[in-house]
Design brief:
Blueprint: E1 2-7, H1 10-14, H2 17-32, E2 39-46, H3 48-59, E3 67-71, E4 93-101, H4 102-111, H5 116-131, H6 139-155
Parallel strand pairs: 1-2, 2-4
Antiparallel strand pairs: 3-4
Length: about 160
């Protein structure tokens, strides 16, 4: 899989984010039956200040958040599992981009009494599912997305985060 991890905050490199990204994406794509070799995307490893700007620019929310995602294409199917993406003309599947904020992830992991790695893995799976059309706007969509997250995380030895 061609995933570019862009480090704006060196703490992510020290935390082993690349390994977590590879594991989360491999497990997610395998669970959904997608060929990881065809999928492309990026992860921006940033801090709260950067994600706050992105959150304000793209979601009009002037606060830091843990993870943001920008799907390459709209795949949502309200109330049901979204259809799997099809390869484009060159055989690749462009998933989109994810940004993840160090301080918020660290604070949440501590508050929720989770390991940092497990919390970040959950957020990466969550972000990737957003790129694949999953959402949690309605209760039914949230049920589908959360159940899918729990299934994927279980394959990775990460207990139910909910």
């Amino acid at each position: 899989m061609a995933v570019e991890v862009i480090f704006e905050d060196d703490r992510w490199d020290e935390a082993g984010l690349e390994v977590l990204v590879e594991a989360a994406e491999a497990a997610t794509l395998a669970h959904l039956g997608l060929d990881a070799e065809l999928c492309e995307g990026s992860v921006l490893a940033c801090d709260d200040a950067r994600i706050k700007v992105l959150n304000a620019d793209f979601r009009e929310k002037d606060k830091a958040t843990n993870v943001l995602s920008w799907p390459a294409e709209e795949r949502a199917a309200p109330g049901e599992r979204p259809p799997l993406p099809e390869p484009d003309f060159d055989g690749s599947i462009e998933l989109g981009d994810i940004a993840i904020a160090y301080e918020t992830c660290l604070r949440e992991a501590e508050e929720q009494d989770k390991t940092f790695a497990n919390h970040v893995t959950h957020l990466l799976v969550h972000g990737l599912l957003h790129l694949l059309g999953y959402d949690h706007i309605t209760d039914r969509d949230a049920e589908i997305m959360e159940a899918t997250e729990v299934e994927i995380l279980a394959t990775m030895g990460v207990k139910d985060p909910y």
